[in-house]
Give the backbone structure.
Amino acid sequence: MRNLLSALAGVLFSIGLRAQTIYDTTFINNLKEQARTAVAAKQKGVQEMVDQIFSYGELGFQEIETSKYLTAFLTKNGFTVEKGIAGIPTSWMARWGSGSPVIALGSDIDCIPKASQKPGVAYKDPIVEGAPGHGEGHNSGQAVIIFAALAVKDLMEKNHLPGTLVIWPGVAEELVGSKAWYVRDGYFKNVDACIFTHVGSAWNCNYGDPGMNGLVSVKFSFDGEAAHAAGAPWRGKSALDAVELMDVGWNFKREHLKPTQRSHYVITDGGDQPNVVPSKASVWYYFRERNYDDISSMYAAGVNIAKGAALMTDTRMSYQIQGTAWPGHFNKALAQAMYANIKKVGYPQWTDADQQLALAVQKLVDAPKTDLEGKPIHGLRSDLDTLKGSVPFSWGGGSDDIADISWNVPTIDLYYPANIPGTKGHHWADAIAMATPIAHKGSLYGAEVTAMTLIDLFTKPQIIADAKDYFNNVQTKEVKYKPFITKDDPPAIYLNKETMEKYREQMRKYYYDPSKYKTYLEQLGITYPTLTPPAK
Ligand SMILES: [Zn+2]
């Protein structure tokens, strides 16, 4: 397939540097077009995968059906799957190919508590009341990377291109619970570059520091003494008092933290019933800041306040990390390659039905008129942003443990347009678009861009060289990755077990059956879009 000139250039290049093949530009562009066409032909497959995972609606560390489905699909398509990596039963790593470069492709798979919602319906209408649901849109990302990988795998086989594809899931991303453990256990050691994909409402693959916070997630447990709460309260030591005093202490501490911090907690155990002095209680904190040192000092302050609360109540305190994420930093060379492909592919064609749903959802959630950059929020986006580098300043924000990978391997974070702008995030309304044509088209386009970028990475060794140069000489020149976890911190795989067990059987009735129904909307009998509730 390679022409004589490029073969000759390859030989000359090998003499000068090391053995690597230089491919002709026409050959590369041809391959990219073929990759894009091959992905586009899998429109049905993308829709089925997006809908299937939406219907499973599994919380972090309990992605049992999702992982079973994905690993079976990948095995059937020629990948070798290692299951249960890093001590996490629902994690896995799938490989195909041989030699370098080794390109890893990842996307999250878990969902949000109490976010069950019928797709395509612009008012609150849960599939199963109280159950979890894809109120972050993590049901769409695996279709993006898997259908991109399959198209590229075919082309690599036909054209004898060397290289390895590695596919992995972001398990328990909502708990930032897995990726630092993958890194700790060496799963990214021999990876040359990582493409991560995440649902968005616009195209975006910025490089540098996007302004996110990192975090540690820590559970503090207090151990006291039970007693009859009326008969002998003076003989009790309340663990709940310790939790409340810790929270009061932390809320005073807030005044003396930088404005970039975010911290929040939930009381996961507040005792059993009022007439028993609570002998056990626990509170779960997320401590977020913009850099490692500030996160560490928040964490230390939290531990001190917990010790103080234990002293005040004469209880015993212990704590355990549940999750962790570094603040993100993404690779310039990879972003530039990907952005060029985004420009080529552009936005999906939104229909009137898509726009009607988007506008109705924006009204439902009382969306702001503009986003944080001042861009209007009105329906679905179709205007492309420019490619941006590090933010000059950020007030802080959310976190994603992809950052722990991005500080170990050159990584890019692709946001593809598969959801509605202006929603709140982590909310049932964020699930409305996620098994509709909006998510299907956005994910398909995400897969096209990913496939084209993979061809770039497998045929242009200079991109990987530039990516490594940026990683070594810019990103990590002064900041070095220091994990928050040690080899003794286990992944918090027990989280969400009870909640998932409570709802799984009710949810099972609504699992998508693609052998009977064209789409999940069809299975649920939903007219797309349904904008108003039926008249009572
Ligand atoms: Zn996410």
About this structure: The first helix runs from residue 4 to 16. The radius of gyration is 24 Å. The mean pLDDT is 95.
